[in-house]
Write a structure and sequence with these properties.
With about 475 residues, this protein is an alpha/beta fold. The chain contains 14 helices and 15 strands. α5 runs parallel beside α6, α6 runs antiparallel to α13 and α10 runs parallel beside α13. The structure holds 6-O-phosphono-beta-D-glucopyranose (BG6). The site of 6-O-phosphono-beta-D-glucopyranose has 5 residues, from α9.
């Protein structure tokens, strides 16, 4: 058969990301028959261990019966080697050659998954390129590289990293993951927006008063403080996940669903966003409360750290469709709940002739990414009963009720599968990255210089009260709670 001879190299196999995300995602794909039955998954890292030791490490995060887990783990082997120098990579190259010689007539697919900090990407890519890229010439063979954020820490460093990687692997081989793009509801945004006639005429500054994109977590940095402290919430969540969601909400309809058509439109809208102005920003850092530690209580975080764990920023898109409409991006750790959602609030209906508070009687479209995927539209309807009052209710599409039989896949398996299929639609192109960094870089430099105030907020709270003022200024009206 001409089945793909697929080899997945997980560089950084002994690390947290690999154990928690990459291998479980690969297991999901394997168990559901999305990977060729002869797939080989080769872990590569500096830790000195053998196949069995790796399997032991991976097992607790895998799911299913012992038999299912064993079948998957049989495909997983390990090669120890360093990220610099030639020796380790040459060892890996030998294993790859041996493996591929067993299916030498079939096209070979090689996926290098870099589950590593970006600081080592250049040397890892150089090692792979120089020592391992001896791909055979059977038609349909390919090599692709998956990389994880953060891609740099500002515009300049991101460009530098992109230059270094770009010299080794051109854009069509590079798959930059932003896992929010692999979420069901993020993908749905694109379909929902561009396939519904009733939305099209209102999707603009005439009818939309403000847009809010919110990411909340009800836990702190928990052991990731060392990593987090060098980045902060703006680099960790806003510059990538939330900026991508904003682009999906605000972009024009692309020419087609071809990955480049779609990404062209995302870049265009991102480039229309002016860099964030400091008066449109509220930063926060959580403090100990309710028996939970404060951010600086994390032993890996310096005691005097001013790194924000919460940020709310208002952005403006300078184009015909959106001029003047505030887009409020808000993200925080150690808040009162875990939730990610997009709220599109329309303007109040003019000449409101019913009983009720006209200003709070607003239509609002809410897309909840997690938990419990849902789309609901706040509608003003007659309150049932003998009175003749208006009230807010919901047209509600709750996924677990509407699609009880569908197991909504996680972002990682979906994105890995896309990369095996060669589909870059849900991966971040270099120019998108550049545009997104451009929006935040001047602000980040001010924050790094200590020029922006960071408000304390208690662990488990709604975040700093100052953020509510930002929402009020953005004309957000809190109508009936859902
Ligand atoms: C990651 C961030 O990209 O996304 C984490 O680095 C964050 O800090 C995570 O916790 C959130 O992802 P999800 O899918 O759980 O919302």
């Amino acid at each position: 058969s001409d089945e793909l001879c697929l080899t997945i190299v997980v560089a950084g196999a002994s690390g947290d990301l690999a154990r928690k995300k990459t291998y479980p995602a690969l297991q999901f794909l394997f168990q559901h028959g999305f990977l060729p039955s002869n797939v080989a998954i080769i872990g590569y890292a500096r830790t000195d261990m053998n196949d069995d030791k790796l399997r032991e490490k991976l097992k607790p995060k895998l799911v299913g019966s012992d038999d299912d887990i064993d079948k998957f783990l049989k495909r997983c082997t390990y090669v120890a080697g360093s990220y610099d120098g030639a020796e380790g990579w040459q060892g890996l190259a030998k294993v790859l050659d041996k493996r591929e010689s067993k299916c030498s007539k079939n096209p070979a697919g090689r996926l290098y998954y870099l589950a590593l900090p970006p600081s080592v990407y250049p040397q890892v890519c150089a090692g792979l390129k120089e020592h391992c890229d001896n791909l055979r010439s059977v038609e349909g063979s390919w090599i692709r590289v998956i990389v994880e954020k953060p891609f740099g820490h500002d515009l300049q460093s991101s460009e530098q990293l992109a230059d270094q990687l770009g010299k080794l692997y051109p854009e069509h081989q590079l798959y930059r993951i932003d896992h929010y793009l692999g979420k069901e509801m993020a993908q749905n945004l694109f379909v929902m927006r561009h396939a519904n006639m009733f939305l099209a005429p209102v999707w603009n500054r005439t009818c939309i008063s403000n847009v809010q994109i919110t990411f909340k977590e009800d836990f702190g940095t928990e052991g990731r403080g060392g990593y987090f402290d060098t980045f902060g919430i703006l680099r960790d969540v806003l510059q990538n996940h939330l900026a991508q969601m904003l682009a999906m909400v605000a972009m024009e309809k692309p020419l087609s669903v071809h990955p480049d058509d779609l990404r062209d439109e995302k870049v265009k809208v991102l480039r229309c966003i002016k860099p964030v102005e400091p008066h449109n920003v509220v930063l926060g850092q959580y403090t100990a409360a309710n028996g939970q530690p404060g951010y600086t209580d994390d032993p890996t975080v310096p005691d005097d750290s001013k790194t924000p764990t919460f940020a709310a920023v208002t952005l403006y898109i300078d184009n015909d469709r959106w001029a003047g409409v505030p887009f409020v991006l808000k993200a925080g750790k150690a808040l009162n709940e875990r939730k990610a959602e997009i709220r599109v609030q329309l303007r109040a209906t003019p000449h409101f002739v019913f009983n009720g508070e006209p200003e709070s009687m607003r239509n609002e479209l809410v897309v909840r990414l997690q938990p419990d995927e849902a789309i609901y539209l706040k509608m003003i309807v007659k309150k049932p009963g003998l009175e003749f009052d208006a009230a807010i209710s919901e047209l509600d599409l709750d996924y677990s009720r509407r699609y009880p039989e569908v197991d909504i896949p996680d972002a990682y398996p979906r994105l890995i599968l896309d990369s095996i299929r060669g589909d870059q639609q849900h991966f971040v192109r270099r120019d998108e990255l550049r545009a997104a960094w451009g929006i935040f870089t001047p602000l980040l430099h001010k924050i790094d210089a200590g020029e922006v105030e960071v408000h304390p907020y208690p662990y488990g709270s709604r975040g700093p009260a100052e953020a509510d003022e930002l929402l009020a200024r953005a004309d957000f009206v809190k109508n009936v709670a859902y």
